[in-house]
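Continuing the series of single-chain predictions for the mutant panel. This is the parent chain; the variants come on the following pages.
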Amino acid sequence: MSAPALFDLPAPAEASTAAPATFRRSGITVLSYGLGADSTAILLMFLADPERYGLRADLSDLVVVHAVTGDEWPDSLSYVDRLVLPLLRRAGVRLVQIARCGPEDADGVVILDDSRQPRRIFAQGPWRLSDELRAAGTVPQMANGRRTCSIKFKGWCLDAWAAHEFGTASFRRGIGYHAGEMGRAEKDTGIQRRLNAEAGRSICEPYYPLILAAMDRAAVEAYVLAQLGKKIRKSYCAQCPFSGVCASRDAHEERLRAHPHVAADVLRMEYVSQALNERVALYGTTSLRKRLTEDGQNTAVLDAFELSLQQAPYAVYEVRRVYFAARTDDCRRWHGTACRSPRWWCRQPRTEACVQGHPAGRFEPWCSGYWDSCRGAAKKGQAWRSVRTVFEGSRADAEAHVRAQAGKRGMTLERGEHSGIERAHYLTAGDSYPTASGYLVAAPAGVHDKQRPKFEERFTQLTGRDGTVGTPLRELPEPAPRRRTGGVVVVRRAKTIGGVMLIA
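Parent structure:
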């Protein structure tokens, strides 16, 4: 028995000529379980009436899969442990918990647990989202509204596991979009339609039970409350920049107050990010710290954060940047995706006077750029960053080191406009591009030294400076060749021996 999909997907017959000979339907429904209200509601609906949703009465054809990011709220983990897992054990439903093994796709995916009698939801795997962010000294980016961290730590893991589990067999994937998220469901279906077409077969069929049931967010929460007797909170990572969407500001701050140690970790992550880049706070240029300070109820959280800064080992980082000029429309038009023979107008846009007076020839604009009236102002393009650790010690010693170097080398001490963090600047970015900047700043230790192989060459060409102002404590690691998956992601199984998790 099969329940209908919300949106039509290519029928198997349409792609039959390209489908592998081994193509078949697995007959399995996979529920992507995020621990929140939406996916919990679907799970409860499946448990209450399996056959209504195209499942066998014994639920033997249901697999619940949870991708562990490592940064879920403790109360979400506790809620599922206490109220949901007992229901799965009673029904014998298969729960698979997976996580990334490392920062690169070639590190693969680990199956933390695969059981019909699950005892707990894992809080973390070998590589957490927060591990990646701390090593890079940043926070999740709100790039054009795309949830890139969710794609990397959830979607990619789920797809890799499914390929390992089902091979070329298709399956039905249940996704927790409610009736108020039609746009997200349509986008998801469009992506899956494209992936199916590229594969020449039906990889999976998206299935949106909440939308089919016309259940909005309020109806979902009311249903879960009626079934489990306790209100469920939205599931999202503690450092999520979309927390204003995942929960109201008041609800988010209430949660931070309930878990001050979690709040302190997020605030410290944001502090390091702003130390390395003034304009990269949790909500763009608006910081979580600023929001919490505006509300007089968060004194305990801010005190916990300040204590964590005092106790943390510190480092002084020398941060240098090269800001390149952006490619112009003319460059993209005439030179395509890769500019191998740059002209002056590849980085400086031609003015309207130039366009009218020196029209493009058969192959490209011919203007030499001799006339100033032909050259427009360059726009900011790609930025390269170098981070080198030049001192390690206590917070007091690190901050004193920055001030001492400023006095010794004639640097300018300035506090950030948004963060209030003190930096010693020896090179300030100009208003035109390309340009460069450089400064020393004290912040909690843990950011990995990193820069592109050609950074020094470009930095010297632009500034005339050779090397760093401070002496780096460590040599840069040799750039390792990028490891490829070859199209097949390695999926490993974890084993626990004496309370220690081992990855086979």
